[in-house]
Amino acid sequence: MNLTLAPIPYFWPRTMVREFYEAVATWPVDVVYLGEIICSKRREMRTRDWQEVAGLLVAQGKEVVFSTLSLIEAESEILAMNRWVEHGGLLIEANDWSAVHSLHAHGLPFVAGASLNLYNHEALHFLQQRGMRRFVLGVDQGAEQLQALRTHFPAGAQHFPQTEVLVWGRVPLAYSARCFTARAQERSKDDCAHCCLQYPEGIVLDTREDQPFVCLNGIQVLSAQCCDLGPELEQLQALDVQYLRITPQAVGTGAVIERFRQGLAAAQPLGREGDCNGFWHGGPGMAWMSSANPSI
Fold first, then answer.
1. CB 3.0 to 4.6 Å from 94: which of 22, 69, 84, 99, for a disulfide?
2. Domain containing 26: what range?
3. Cβ atoms within 10 A of the Cβ of 20, count?
């Protein structure tokens, strides 16, 4: 099984991003996803910066994948995406269907991101015929849904595509054309003043009972809780999941990667350190479920 590091979902200063990936180059992670996936106005990192980071990681033996925006709304964003498609050299994670169209038109393989919302075997087969190499399981899908996808994959079709599952990090729940972070500061999206930079891990909202509920990150809504599938390593392996995805956080990502690497080396489940795993067990996403016993 391979450990993968998802693209940074938050807006960090350029210096912070560069320092983060200099550290990543030394961590025991196999695949690193790069790029801006939330908002095209986040331009601290330019194309040349991403290319330099990619070169650093490749030199350290990492596989590098470039990730596209999860919600493409403007022609300028399509043009920016196409520059990466036409550049070649890196596998691309398509997080929007326009990216799928462009990659297929260029005859290039790709990773299907979770935001494509692939809920049935026919959709997987459709994309596999168009160049999909692997797919990231939808964050609200779990073990039972993955098994169903494998069971019902078309007979006589190509082998079931490589599978990647989010095993650590806040769970992406929704995307909007509006910017929640700008709204929180009573700003419009067009006049946001790049206020996301003030929140390196988003804005956590609590319920009236003072319980963490969701996290606002630009146009994205994340869970406030951190998903942890470390205790499910044996089941993930039994389901032939080849890639375990970890979402970056401002502090402690290296320790998370080391924890999972040690679990894989020992071939045994990890103890619980996160907050939730409900989706994986077919329950409420914010629940922690051990066997059939949920707790919220």
1. 99
2. 2-170+226-295
3. 17
CB 132 within 8 A of CB 99: no
**What is residue 224's three-state secondary structure?**
strand
Residue 93 CB neighbours (<10 A): 28
The pTM of this model reads: 0.95
- Domain-embedded: residue 186: no
Q: What is the CATH number of the domain that holds 46?
A: 3.20.20.80
216 lies in some domain: no
The structural domain count of the chain equals 1
Instruction: Quote the CA–CA distance of 276 and 89 in Å, as a whole number.
Output: 37
In a domain, 107, yes or no: yes
Q: Can you tell me the distance from the alpha carbon of 20 to that of 238, in angstroms, rounded to the nearest whole number?
A: 33
* pLDDT level of residue 157 (50, 70, 90 thresholds): low
How far is residue 169's CA from residue 247's CA, in Å, rounded to a whole number?
Answer: 5
pLDDT tens digits, residue range 82-97?
999 988 789 999 999 9
Distance CA 296, CA 286 (A): 6
H helix or E strand, kind and range, residue 138: none
Let me know if residue 183 belongs to a domain: no
